[in-house]
Amino acid sequence: MPDGLAAAINDAYADRSPSLLIANVKTAVSRHLEAADPSAVVHHTEYFNNSLAPDIILQWPKESRNRHVFLRPTSNTRWVQ
Amino acid sequence: MSGEGHQIKGFEGLRRAKKWLDSSTRVSQIWTNENRGLKELLAFDWPHGEDFSFDMGGQLRGGDLEGKMFLAEVKNYDHEMDLPIHFREFLAQCYVALNEKPDLSDIFMWISWSPFQAQRWHEHATAKSVQKAVLKHSGLILDTSDEQKALSEIDPAVIANVSERIWLITLCDQQEDLVIAHEHYVQVVSLMLANDREVTH
Predict the structure, then answer these.
(1) What is the pLDDT of residue B198?
(2) How far apart are CA B106 and CA B98, in angstroms?
(3) Are B32 and B55 in contact (CB under 8 A)?
(4) d(CA B188, CA B196)
(5) In this predicted model, which residue has the larger pLDDT, B156 or B10?
(6) What mean pLDDT comes out for the span B118-146?
(7) What is the complex's ipTM, to 2 decimals?
(8) Is the distance from CB of B68 to CB of B107 less than 8 angstroms?
(9) CB contact under 8 A, B31 and A49
């Protein structure tokens, strides 16, 4: 993980309200994705760490399909399905 | 079973319980005691002892459950073993949790793969059982082993609230499979996402 993104996520974890903490984590990841491709449109879903529902959806103006982003707050690969 | 064996079995239970909850379509946000930065949401302090942690927590969605926060204890046991002792401790921990972080304590889930003391199943989550559990752990909660003193300090409203918030869930292998099929779940999620998503900028 890039240092800047890791630091932003660490900052996000400082909030003790689950909803704010999760919103901050998603914002940190979104900013990183947007910086990589400014043409991407980023949507946050209501989900976090769900096995099947994505946390973030990416769209591009010239593409009709969505790309789903799943966040996994663990380094244990057994949680990644 | 070795310590490592217990650890693997514990992890497997946590993974299976989370997958089953996710498959319900009623969990919006979920975290476990393995998630850095989030496991702190599951951690509590005995008022007169060290800390303890629940295994899993999160937020439910839809209908009457919308926005409800849950804390869960997962016991991957094949048979009763020492579940009664763990359950009593769980009830006492729920009493502490509701006092310390009521905003995270709408529902307390006990998830296991084995019933215990089945003849008294209907009594497991009563206010009387919660009170007995708190008395059993009165040293950690109230700094006294004197029952009368403890009884005078226990908050009956919190006892009643804990009792009403307990969900006793006993899973079996077949029940874990008997959930919405993956292809349907994907369609349901697509519908939910279409209705609920928010543009972030």
Answers:
(1) 46
(2) 8
(3) yes
(4) 12
(5) B156
(6) 97
(7) 0.90
(8) yes
(9) yes
> Mutating which of B61, B184, B189 best tests the A interface, going by the most A Cβ atoms within 10 A?
B189
Write the pLDDT tens digit of every residue in B58-103. Answer: 999 999 999 999 999 999 998 999 999 999 999 999 999 999 999 9
Contact at CB, B37 and A57, closer than 8 angstroms = no
Neighbours of A5 (CB within 10 A): 15
Q: pLDDT, tens digit, for every residue of B172-183?
A: 999 999 998 988
The residues pairing with B72 across neighbouring beta strands, listed in sequence order, are: B56, B109
Distance in Å, alpha carbon of A36 to nearest chain B alpha carbon: 16
Radius of gyration of chain B (CA): 18
Give residue B142's pLDDT band: very low, low, confident or very high (50, 70, 90).
very high
Distance of alpha carbon B101 from alpha carbon B187, whole angstroms? 36
Q: Which residues pair with A56 in a beta bridge?
A: A44, A69
Q: What does the block give as tokens for B46?
A: 């005995």
Number of other CB atoms surrounding residue B130 within 10 Å:
26
Distance CA B164, CA A1 (A): 43
B185: which chain A residues are within 8 Å (Cβ-Cβ)? 52
Tokens of B109: 């889930």
Q: Which residues of B touch A21 (CB under 8 A)?
A: 37-38, 41
Contact B95, B141 (CB under 8 A): yes
